[in-house]
Design goal:
6-stranded mixed β-sheet; 34 strands; Immunoglobulin-like; alpha+beta; 5-stranded mixed β-sheet; 11 helices
Length: 599
């Protein structure tokens, strides 16, 4: 039987992926950048991205996290520029600021004063900083009463050789403590003042404001809450979250185990405290998984014996609950010794390593991560190399994998990478990016005799390091709060929940009044039930009805639309959202078609 309205023709085509450039900047700068849930660097940030939509998130302490979807076209450059908002609680602590604006050497002064004042007013309002704006010319000192700070804002114009040059000068004074906090000056040229002033002026204003807000928050943040360094946020068993972190007091001293034992810790999502499942020093975990990857390329030949001695000392000093694997890499990446806690076997395996060949650095990282990914417990890769990713003759790359791929795989498998660059020819930028992007540290060892000290610094990185576990309620950000006997320390972290975790399957058309089924299945391993909502939504966004379900395994749900028309079926779970358009046909149309079939 034919039914024209119920038959779908699916057309498949081969998609060829193109690349564009994605640039991310923030004011203030040096904010964390997450692309599609992965922390890849800090603002200002740039990368090649596959054509399509990407989730860009920006996060900086003391400021509200920012997130948006952007489309990157093939062979195009896409920019995300964001002035970050101060967290409302910190904005309240800052109080109200008085801004005195002065315009020098420009006529008509009223026009430029109004334009500048309006841009400042808008910027401060959008950034959650309370402020009043007045003319700074001959300002009476009594005007400062009742304000927490005074920002002197001077824009001076100078015309020379037909060019319009402007100098923006700011000075901020803390009126409560009567001290100068910041002084900054920027010069820029404007071509076509009346027509194009904003295009030249606003980027400079954003940059200056970013430095100003960062200065305010940095001081306030440390005074109010110390700081917490988050080295790893593990969501592999989501909604269970595992954090590795190191807290510091207001004097930038790491908190000792004794202090932690006498403190109250809580994790807050959407203003609601969440109970901790576990809190312990990382060194007290049941097992710590280490892979030591040692470069044995030809350039290591003069120093390989000393490197093995330093590695031997390092292995002997690792915590007793460590399980260690040993990799050596040149043309080949060899698993010299699989995971063991037998230090004598590891030392014997070290003794068999000889130097020769090329340096496939990133392929080594990928193989080491794959090895570690099968282990339960915290995972660490210690990489020792004297060069760059290169082939035997240093004429091309040595790895099939890129640094981005190595970082992605390490982050997906929650492996922290520590790297030691031996000698003066190491690729410090790439090794620094590799380690910073995975929560580890890059250490420079200019000579072989410095290698022992570099290994000791890695061991020191595990001091005052803690692991906490809890069940997330579905938020993208959370706050870790530590109430010590003498202070409160807080730190905000981003939860890199996979963007696509569920699949919704529904028919494209149904009959009004007749039940039908939709199917939902997980795209990743579920470790606990999650709550989801199924909605029927009109094209203009009005919710007709909704159902709440607890979801764990693939399931079918029965639905029915009473009236014909075009609608959406919407699936919502935490921050996951997916819609399917559905056409609801009147039953008489189906009957007419059926009658037509038999005429």
């Amino acid at each position: 039987m034919k039914s024209k309205c119920l038959v779908l023709f699916l057309l498949f085509s081969v998609a060829f992926f193109g690349y564009g450039v994605l640039k991310v900047d923030s004011y203030p700068s040096k904010a964390l950048v997450y692309i599609d849930g992965e922390h890849l660097g800090y603002t200002p940030f740039s990368m090649y991205a596959v054509e399509g939509y990407h989730r860009v998130a920006i996060d900086k302490k003391g400021f509200e996290p920012y997130e948006e979807y952007v489309y990157v076209g093939k062979d195009t450059e896409t920019e995300v520029n964001k002035v970050l908002k101060v967290r409302p609680d910190y904005g309240a602590i800052l109080g109200k600021i008085l801004i005195g604006v002065q315009i020098n050497n420009y006529e008509p002064e009223e026009w430029l004063f109004g334009k500048v004042s309006e841009s400042i007013k808008k910027l401060f309002k959008e950034s959650n900083i309370s402020a009043d704006i007045v003319s700074g010319e001959g300002l009476d000192p009594s005007a400062e009463l009742g304000y927490s700070g005074y920002l002197k804002f001077v824009l001076a114009h100078n015309e020379k050789d037909g060019k319009h040059l402007f100098t923006l000068f700011i000075e901020y004074r803390d009126l409560i403590h009567n001290k100068k906090i910041l002084e900054l000056e920027k010069t820029f040229e404007v071509i076509g003042i009346r027509e194009h002033f904003d295009g030249f002026y606003l980027p400079v204003l954003w940059e200056v404001f970013g430095a100003f807000s960062d200065s305010l928050i940095s001081g306030l943040y440390d005074k109010v809450s110390g700081r917490i360094e988050f080295l790893n946020v593990d969501v592999q068993h989501y909604p269970e979250i595992s954090l590795i972190f190191r807290p510091y007091d207001e004097f930038n001293t790491p908190l000792s185990s004794d202090t932690i034992n006498h403190s109250e810790l809580s994790i807050i999502e959407a203003g609601t405290p969440t109970s901790l499942l576990q809190l312990s020093p990382v060194k007290q975990e049941a097992v710590l998984n280490f892979t030591l990857a040692l470069d044995r390329s030809g350039s290591m030949k003069p120093v390989i014996e000393k490197a093995k001695l330093a590695a031997k000392d390092f292995l002997s000093l690792l915590p007793s609950n460590s399980s260690i694997a040993l990799i050596a890499f040149d043309n080949e990446i060899e698993l010299v010794k699989n995971f063991t806690d037998n230090r004598q076997e590891l030392v014997a395996a070290l003794g068999n390593i000889t130097a020769q060949g090329s340096t496939p650095l990133y392929d080594t990282v990928v193989k080491a991560v794959e090895l570690l990914s099968k282990r339960k417990g915290p995972r660490f890769l210690v990489l020792v190399t004297d060069g760059v990713d290169a082939n035997l003759r240093d004429t091309d790359l040595g790895s099939e994998n890129s640094i981005s791929e190595a970082i992605r795989i390490a982050r997906e498998n929650n492996v922290m990478i520590f790297a030691i660059g031996l000698g003066k020819n190491v690729d410090e930028f790439s090794l620094g990016t590799l380690t910073a992007s995975t929560g580890g540290t890059f250490l420079d060892s200019p000579t072989i005799d410095d290698l022992d000290e570099a290994f000791k610094k890695i061991l020191g990185a595990f001091e005052n390091l803690y692991i906490a576990k809890y069940f997330s309620t579905g938020e993208r950000t959370a706050l870790l709060r530590i109430d010590t006997p003498t202070s409160r320390i807080e730190g905000e972290f981003l939860i890199p929940i996979p963007e696509i975790s569920l699949s919704l399957t529904a028919p494209s058309s149904v009959i009004a009044g007749m039940p039908f089924e939709v199917s939902i299945s997980p795209l990743s391993t579920m470790t606990a039930p999650i709550n989801l909502t199924l909605k029927a939504v009109t094209l203009d966004g009005t919710t007709l009805w909704q159902e709440e379900h607890s979801f764990y395994d693939p399931a079918n749900y029965e639905m029915v639309f009473k009236e014909p028309g075009d609608f959406y079926i919407e699936l919502n779970s935490f921050r996951f959202l997916e819609r399917r358009k559905i056409q609801v046909l009147p039953i008489d149309k189906l009957l007419n078609e059926l009658v037509g079939e038999y005429r």
